[in-house]
Amino acid sequence: MSYPTPKVIHFCLVILFCAQSFIISTLPAQTAMAQALHPLDSLTAEEIQTAARVLHASAQFPEGALFSTIVLKEPLKNDVLGYQPGRQARRQAFAVILDRKGSAIQVVK
Does 1 fall in a domain? Predict the structure, then answer.
């Protein structure tokens, strides 16, 4: 079992910041165009592609890395309870990145 090195932790923090900044601002606009989704609905194919594109475009993304998982990050309870049909819900992605060359697994929340 390997533990994250400071370099891996730094990568995760940078990707986390970039992903949340972009995904928070992008995903609601896209879902509003298609249809209003419940906060607990799975990510759409378009949302998954957007999250992958944002993460892959980061300068910190490891060369040759693959996505193991990209799923909906569970929203806060207050966001779920306060949801009203027809209104936009804040949606975020959770991703697991496999860095085969660096022999590391990186989690992006």
Answer: no
